[in-house]
Prior knowledge:
Order of helices and strands: HHHHHHHHHHHHEE
Number of strands: 2
Distance between the termini: 27 Å
Strand content: under 5%
Number of helices: 12
Shape: globular
Oligomer: single chain
Strand order of the largest sheet: 1-2
Amino acid sequence: MDVRKQLDGTAVIAMLLICLVWSSQQVILKEIAGNFSPLLLLAFRSGIAALMLGVLMTVQRQRFPMANNMWLMGGLVGLLFSLEYFFVSEAVKYTTAGHVVVFLYTSPIFAAVGLNFAIKDERLSGLQWVGIVFSFIGICVSFSGGFGDSTMLKGDFFALLSGLMWGATTVVIRSTRVNQMGSRPILLYQLIVSFMILLLASWLSGNTLFEPTLKNITALTFQSVVICFISFLAWFALLKKYVASQLGVLTFMTPLFGVILGALLLHETIQNTFVWGANLVVIGIILVTVKSGGIRIFRRRRPL
């Protein structure tokens, strides 16, 4: 019987580091956007991480499922993953990194609503619908701070679309045959497809700016190796060992860290309306995702 452990000090420290790493990706994209196109960086990141993961799976003799049209479903998941990061790349052009990470992490709300209709056992309770309302109000309050700034409002909208795409990815993985794959093959599909789509999008849109400075190369290396490869594999390893619901709760540290890093490193202003709105969003997400003391959306086969 597969019994997972309760959280211990090692798991908590590991999750703190993982959430800190995840929260840094939008800050990095924003910081170097002036001389390294975010869209191009994300394309290169996916390609490098896909190569590393492919080598690892080959060495460990893990198969890459393509039979029975599985490649079509893998391609769909990869397309949604690509759209998620396309919208992230657009969002960081117009709004703050803190806003991007908070709106990106609205994904559990969209996933919960989608799963409510896709899977019979995932019907939302009354309390969870209250959480949906809380999050919707929080999003509106957060957006209200940008009503006087159309550029920020545009960026916030793109960030929210990225959260929608992440949520849609979760729905597809949970409600289709994709969930029969292991976590690594799903991630590899996402990385390969996003590399091709984002690279093509970069070329077609003219977002090909890349100055080969030490800062840019370091950023690309960190995004590819640490964020997209090591942290994802570490997350999957923790999911195999510890209770997923407890790990899921800790992931809510990511948007908090993102806002703090944006303020400290990029000197971003944190508006009062955004703080109140973000708090309502987080409260809503907690109400939506908690069921019988657990987080439903964070399951073993759900890559980030």
